[in-house]
Write a structure and sequence with these properties.
By secondary structure, the chain is α+β, with helices and mostly antiparallel strands. The protein contains ten helices and eight strands. The longest helix is centred in the N-terminal third of the chain and has 42 residues.
Length: 350
């Protein structure tokens, strides 16, 4: 009975220290840290966002580490186990610092990319590359701290690098192709692109292996970076989202072309003015180009704000132009072909 009471008395202090450390970490994480993040956000919204995301739950981890550290110093144990647990705690501290550094640098990279999107677009491959570099440095520090020489490890990695490169040739090719796409700024996330192989859509993301494209049909197309890097790409958002829209039209040979041009331009102006996707400041133009088999053909040049606006603009323009031509008496002819039939003349009867 007395042994149990003495054991409880002996264990009460270290357990109390551990629980107090955990409780302190929780209070700091839930109250003091939240308030500190708000103060930082008032000074700078960007830094507040980085601090809130990077140090999330870290006070609880720090409290747990401090609690375990206090616990092992209140409990009598051999020096071997004491040193072992001390190394484990030190490793946990370094790893936690690596996690925080990874969050800070990755969020800072995203913030920089957001502000300087023309220089460096924000994509998954950028975030993953930053986190990978930080974790590699953190791992090397952990090895060095635990008495493992880093030099042989780096040498082994260098020797095995060739074998790894040969085994993962396709994967590494996609990785470096993704980095090339990222740095060359051929396109950015959100751009509408069309590949020479026929795939087209809005770019959702560029990962370490593939580029994700969302087609207009709401389907997702996943293409290896290597394939995109070697393809001919049409970027409809570069250097500007605005683009010209050419609508072919044909009218009868009996039409007054001056009148046709005037009416067509008026309808085009109305469409660009009334629809959200039209560039209101653009002056539409008509360009006659061909004497067709049954009509005089010309192009109507309009301008839309971005690639996907062309469909609604064309739809409305064709409807309004057809109605206006009917009111103005301008004929859009059916295809006509004149056939001359030669009949053999009967020979005179003798």
């Amino acid at each position: 009975m007395f042994e149990k009471i003495s054991f409880l008395h002996a264990a009460a202090l270290p357990i109390g220290v551990f629980l107090a450390s955990m409780l302190t970490g929780y209070i700091i994480s839930q109250f003091a840290f939240v308030r500190l993040s708000r103060i930082i956000a008032k000074a700078s919204e960007d830094y507040g966002e980085i601090a809130a995301g990077s140090l999330k739950d870290m006070p609880i981890v720090a409290g747990a580490v401090c609690g375990v550290y206090g616990l092992i110093h209140f409990v009598h144990m051999d020096e071997y186990w004491l040193n072992l647990l001390g190394n484990i705690l030190l490793t946990a501290v370094i790893f936690s610092g690596t996690v925080v550094a990874s969050r800070i640098f990755s969020r800072a990279a995203v913030l920089y990319a957001r502000k300087a999107e023309e220089v460096l677009p924000s994509t998954s491959i950028l975030i993953n590359a930053v986190q990978l570099v930080v974790y590699i440095f953190g791992g090397l520090i952990i090895l060095q701290t635990n008495g493992v020489s880093v030099t042989p490890v780096l040498t082994a990695l260098g020797v095995g690098g060739l074998a790894i490169a040969l085994a993962l040739q396709e994967t590494l090719s996609n990785l470096f192709s993704g980095l090339y796409i990222l740095l060359s700024r051929q396109f950015r996330v959100g751009d509408y692109i069309r590949l020479s192989t026929g795939e087209e859509g809005h770019v959702l993301d560029i990962t370490w292996r593939s580029t994700v494209i969302k087609a207009l049909a709401n389907n997702v197309i996943i293409l290896p970076n290597q394939k995109i890097a070697s393809a001919t790409i049409t970027n409809f958002f570069f250097p500007d989202k605005e683009m010209s829209l050419v609508v072919p039209v044909g009218v009868s040979y009996d039409s007054d072309l001056e009148h046709v041009e005037r009416v067509t331009v008026e309808v085009a102006r109305e469409v660009l003015r009334d629809l959200a996707g039209g560039v209101k400041s653009f002056e539409p133009a008509v360009r006659f180009h061909t004497f067709g088999e049954s009509s005089v053909n010309f192009n109507v040049i309009l301008r839309v704000k971005e690639y996907t606006d062309q469909y609604l603009i064309t739809h409305d323009f064709v409807k309004r132009l057809h109605r206006r031509y009917s009111l103005e008496g301008i004929e859009i002819p059916f295809p006509i072909r004149t056939v001359h039939v030669k009949q053999a003349v009967e020979a005179e009867k003798a």
